Amino acid sequence: MSLMPEKPPLAILIAVTAVGPLTINIFLPSMPGLVADLDTTYAMVQLTLSLYLAGLAIAQLVYGPLSDRFGRRRPMLVGLGIFLVGSVVCATAPTIGVLIGGRVLQAVGGCAGVVLGRAMVRDMFDRERSASMIAYITMAMVVAPMLAPTIGGTLDEWVGWRYSFVFVLVFGALVMLGCLFVLAETHGPERRKAVAEAHISILGLLKIPAFYGYTLQLSFSSATFFAFLGGAPFVVVQLMGYPPSTFGYYFLFVSACYMIGNFTAARLSTRMGTDRMVLLGTGISVMAAWALGVFYLYDVWGPISLFGSMGIIALGNGVSIPNGIAGAISVDTRLAGAASGISGFTQMAFGAGSTMLVGSLLVDTAAPLVIIMTIGATISFAMHIFGVRLFSAIR
Predict the structure, then answer these.
(1) Where are the domains of the chain?
(2) Cβ contacts of residue 213 below 8 Å, gap of 6+?
(3) What is the mean pLDDT of residues 354-383?
(4) Cβ neighbours around 38 below 10 Å, total
(5) CATH code linked to domain 10-394
(6) Which of 286, 261, 275, 265 is nearest to 382 (CA)?
(7) In this predicted model, what pLDDT tens digit does every residue of 137-155 receive, in sequence order?
(8) pLDDT, tens only, 102-144
(9) Averaged pLDDT for residues 356-373
């Protein structure tokens, strides 16, 4: 008789989903200092973030469809194993090239929790309830990424940047140990057989207007956020002249706002519906992004205006993203894993592109960061309206 629970506890779904975001955020304050420490350029250091996001994007295309056919649990454990190997490589990297390679391994492994955690939630709940549960999971798991830049900046100043990777290595090992004991399978043989017999191509998801609208909304919202992650450390440390820990401390406000948005989504999604919640969230974000542009244009510029505007953008994202995810993975419930993988791929691909673009344009002014964030938030708002209206017209 198996001692495995019938459903995964909420705590383990939070933990596995947190691995990837934690690993992104804890390293951010250390990025400017690597230029001198590893004798490289900021553009090369930027690749540790951009290629991480690219790896996170591409691997999701594999995990999603595989989990629809073979279950969620085994791919999750394989992914966590790859993540641990990548963390060891990063912690011992002698050059920027080796560090970039380790970051890619971390991404390939860490994304298992992101894509499969969403699919497991959809396996257990209907569309509106899954939006609420994803919001609760995101709200709870964001505590670790919220504290991560502060932890990373402090470790960097006290003992060096390598210990940030030691920290995530220990965290990943504990999560994998928990998965071995309590991560139950949610996509059983009957569901896997239904997927195999349906003979549905995952490319068919891209022909569904609703999936198109939700996925592009998620992607441009993510591009706005990751543009900030890729450019704000440079702006704060190099252009404004603050130490790395300052970014970490101000980032706490951004994360807190995101949690408030998640809490709002968790409480209201089942009552208001996913589409209205996405519209509300993207509307809040686009107004805050344009406010950031006004602050910069009129030279009302500093950490308060930068992080204050980003906090309101994060609030809107906290409302819209869980509902956008729930909408994307609900267009065909037989392919929740594939839908999670494809939508996650485009989110991370757009995020990687925005960080690379910001990294290549930032030199002696913050204007590229402000412009890219404003464009991303505006297109996210427009794409949701376009997608929903097109879906309504065809339906």
Answers:
(1) 10-394
(2) 383, 384, 386, 387, 388, 390, 391
(3) 89
(4) 18
(5) 1.20.1250.20
(6) 286
(7) 777 666 766 678 888 888 8
(8) 999 999 999 888 888 878 887 777 777 777 788 877 776 667 6
(9) 88
